[in-house]
Design goal:
The complex is a heterodimer of chains A (114) and B (118). Chain A is built from no helices and eleven strands. In chain A, the strands form two sheets. In chain A, strands 2, 4, 5, 9, 10 and 11 form a six-stranded mixed beta sheet that branches. A five-stranded antiparallel beta sheet of chain A has the order 1-3-8-7-6, with no helix packed on it. With 118 residues, chain B is an all-beta fold. Helices cover 0% and strands 52% of the residues of chain B. Chain B starts with a strand and ends with a strand. The mean pLDDT of chain B is 90. Classes of the chains: A mainly beta (114), B mainly beta (118). Chains A and B meet through strand 5 and strand 10 of A and strand 5, strand 9 and strand 10 of B.
Chain lengths: 114, 118
């Protein structure tokens, strides 16, 4: 079975500060990992994905994440927070590509302080 | 990126009635679509996997007779909540995978449907 754990259901950072959202995974096989963002009353938008290529993955809107097998982590970062980054962020894992289902974490709500 | 639409975006119905939610892939073909349910301030829970031309695969604990899924074409899947009750009120989100994209399991998500059962 696969799972992801997001540490911190709420994270607040000041505008311009570093954003760090934590995600740890559990998987019996090499995982495929994803970060999604959800704005209020909207669906999910893919920020970035790890598919066993480069361990440092760059996504949209200036976000990036690093896959660390030794730590079973896939934390999401952004050097400088913007007000528009305020949203809910979900980490997800799947077993491989294909029609495999995604297993989501419980989400982290990011608040940006002006 | 690929676009997935859902209709309606919001629906309010009376208890005991049935509601149909449509999920469409607008610019790609999707042999597989997924239906999720999201409770307030909670994560997404996969309800079922919808396969074009065959029966849907339901996750454990999801009543298949209550949540009817039909995937009649490569661009349309429908979720019907039968005999809806207030506890069925939720945000329902679909996703679709572009079978030709070759992407690593990338699913494109619809904007969601807010169901309120009175």
């Amino acid at each position: 079975a696969q799972s992801v754990t997001q540490l911190g259901s709420h994270v607040s950072v000041s505008e311009g500060a570093l954003v760090l959202l934590r995600c740890n995974y559990s998987s019996s096989v090499p995982p495929y990992l994803f970060w999604y963002v959800q704005y209020p009353n909207q669906g999910l938008q893919l920020l970035l994905k790890y598919t066993s290529a480069a361990t440092l993955v760059k996504g949209i809107n200036g976000f990036e994440a690093e896959f660390k097998k030794s730590e079973t982590s896939f934390h999401l970062t952004k050097p400088s927070a913007h007000m528009s980054d305020a949203a809910e962020y979900f980490c997800a894992v799947s077993r491989n590509f294909g029609n495999e289902k995604l297993t989501f974490g419980t989400g982290t709500r990011l608040t940006i302080i002006p | 990126g690929a676009v997935v639409s859902q209709h309606p975006s919001r629906v309010i119905c009376k208890s005991g009635t049935s509601v149909k939610i449509e999920c469409r892939s607008l610019d790609f073909q999707a042999t597989t679509m997924f239906w999720y349910r999201q409770f307030p301030k909670k994560s997404l829970m996969l309800m079922a996997t919808s396969n074009e031309g065959s029966k849907a695969t339901y996750e454990q604990g999801v009543e298949k007779d209550k949540f009817l899924i039909n995937h009649a074409s490569l661009t349309l899947s429908t979720l019907t909540v039968t005999s809806a009750h207030p506890e069925d009120s939720s945000f329902y989100i679909c996703s679709a995978r572009d079978q030709l994209a070759g992407a690593y399991n990338e699913q494109f998500f619809g904007p969601g449907t807010r169901l309120t059962v009175l």
